[in-house]
Amino acid sequence: xxxxxxxxxxxxxxxxxxxxxxxxxxxxxxxxxxxxxxxxxxxxxxxxxxxxxxxxxxxxxxxxxxxxxxxxxxxxxxxxxxxxxxxxxxxxxxxxxxxxxxxxxxxxxxxxxxxxxxxxxxxxxxxxxxxxxxxxxxxxxxxxxxxxxxxxxxxxxxxxxxxxxxxxxxxxxxxxxxxxxxxxxxxxxxxxxxxxxxxxxxxxxxxxxxxxxxxxxxxxxxxxxxxxxxxxxxxxxxxxxxxxxxxxxxxxxxxxxx
Length: 258
Description:
Elements: H1 3-25, H2 31-38, H3 41-74, H4 80-86, H5 89-92, H6 95-105, H7 109-117, H8 125-149, H9 153-161, H10 166-194, H11 198-204, H12 214-223, H13 227-257
């Protein structure tokens, strides 16, 4: 078999692997269950909690990820290799383990001080935000570092020779050139936060109308052997994620055409 045919076959096999899983869900699809879900306050609460928590977590993560990614892309500094490795932490340990680490931290004297005097994240909405923030921070920084790596440093050097200082070169040259890549990274970060499950349920639990997100609602439906209800929630989460990923692809497509 020629390499081209083999490579294309493996690529198409990916479509079939995921496609079969999605299509199989429609075997249990029930329009009545869908109508009940769309009129359920509990489901809308889970959607709202997922979207609002993911939005706050994304804003917090991006506010740290942009300057951090720029530093990792442009400068050599003490502990840079350690920071670079730590970005992979959410990917090399399971989300549940990441959630357990958060809970363990809040059992230490420092964690108890924060809970007693500032904010209690255990079994609370803030716990969802924190779990999603911890999960997406490293991934968001990694994606944005790749965006800054694509921008030649010489553009900033030219700006510096024309009188711009370091801050002006960043805000007037690098940031505008990176804005579409950053925007697509923000969308992917948000989509990842919306779908987060392991760390979220470990830290915040799954209390209906309070800390139940869409992924945790799916888990609870499945644990009650409610297959039709599970399929409907999966399809809702799938449609939200596909919309955001399509938006990211649209932005990237226009970036390439610029």
